[in-house]
Amino acid sequence: MLTEVRQRAQAGRAARDGVGLLTFTELRGWLRDAGFDEVTGHDENGDPLCPYSRRMIVVARR
Questions:
Q1: Is 39 helix (H, G, I), strand (E, B) or coil?
Q2: Quick check: 43 pLDDT over 80?
Q3: Beta strand 14-19 pairing with 57-61
Q4: How far is 28 from 59, CA to CA, in rounded Å?
Q5: What's the start-to-end Cα distance of the chain, in Å?
Q6: Confidence band (pLDDT; 50, 70, 90) for 3?
Q7: Are 23 and 16 in contact (CB under 8 A)?
Q8: Were both Cys, which of 10, 22, 39, 42 would link to 26 (CB 3.0–4.6 Å)?
Q9: Range scoring the smallest mean pLDDT among 6-10, 18-22, 31-35
Q10: What is the mean pLDDT of the chain?
Q11: Residue 35 Cα to chain centre, angstroms
């Protein structure tokens, strides 16, 4: 899955950058920057997230 994000280039023109799937570490950082205090990651069974998890569920609380 690929999502396009529009950014302003230094020259003042809009540029497109491709963004792939985000890691838990990236999502946790974004959510903390947005004001969430507690961010946890779980797999499809509700167990703690690990490198072998097939799905990622992120729960964030303020």
A1: strand
A2: yes
A3: unpaired
A4: 10
A5: 29
A6: very low
A7: no
A8: 22
A9: 6-10
A10: 80
A11: 14
